[in-house]
Amino acid sequence: MDAQSFERSALAAVSEAAPTTDLDALRASFDLIRASTLLVQRLEAEVHHPAGWSMAGFRVMFCVWVAGGLEPRDIARLSGLSRAAVSSVLNTLERDGLVERSRESADRRLVTVRLTTDGERRLVAAYEQQNVVERHFFAALGRERIDGFAGDLANLLEHRSSTASTPPST
User: Fold this and answer.
1) 59 burial class (0-12, 13-18, 19+ CB within 10 angstroms)?
2) Quick one: pLDDT at residue 43?
3) Residue 112: helix, strand or coil by DSSP?
4) What CATH number corresponds to the domain at position 139?
5) Residue 34 domain flag
6) Is residue 16 part of a domain?
7) 47, 78, 101, 158: least buried by Cβ within 10 Å?
8) What is the mean pLDDT of residues 130-141?
9) Is the predicted pLDDT of residue 107 greater than 70, yes or no?
10) Which residues, other chains included, contact 164 with Cβ-Cβ below 8 Å and sequence gap of 6+?
11) Count of domains in the chain?
């Protein structure tokens, strides 16, 4: 069974079992999850694993690069990773000489993470490769539709509900 056949079967099964289901929302969720999973798998296989880190490692390094230095709790918030995951990733990245941690505040418990020179060089090189994958991934949409798609996703993220079970008002 291919992905499209599976999706049709899923829609039919859900429609029969739960007839009040919003099938358009199901289809949108189903396809968004499949597309994001496919993109992440491609980025990991073609860019991040060959660069020597995981997608989580890239997300941590990218956040630190953009901000110029962050505390681990801020990295977790911006990257969408748990604090525990950030701590584990930072240990690996620091061991590999890609980031460094320093205590820069009066509160010695607070640590600031920065990219090393080698970490920044390697991150930028990997991002250039990542952007090639991104361009190919979204090429079927065309420039105008990519802009609209990005806007739609930004709108979804901006208006996300703090409680997933609360439907939007109409």
Assistant:
1) buried
2) 97
3) strand
4) 1.10.10.10
5) no
6) no
7) 158
8) 96
9) no
10) none
11) 1
> Is 83 part of any domain?
yes
Mean pLDDT, the chain, as a whole number? Answer: 91
Mean pLDDT of 35-47: 96
Question: In the predicted model, is pLDDT for residue 119 greater than 90?
Answer: yes
Rounded to whole angstroms, what are the CA distances from 96 to 14, 85, 93? Answer: 47, 17, 5
d(CA 103, CA 132): 37
Say whether pTM exceeds 0.85. no
Sequence length of the chain is: 170
The identity of residue 21, as a single letter, is T
Is the model more confident about 105 or about 74?
A: 74
Residue in 126, 101, 103 with CA at minimum distance from that of residue 115: 101
The CA-atom distances, in angstroms, between 114 and each of 9, 93, 105, 138, 146 are 48, 11, 14, 31, 32
Query: What pLDDT does 23 receive?
Result: 92
Cα 96 to Cα 103: distance, rounded to the nearest angstrom: 20
Q: How far apart are the first and last CA of the chain?
A: 38
Q: Which two tokens stand for residue 137?
A: 């991934």
145 within some domain: yes
Residue 96: give the domain boundaries: 39-158
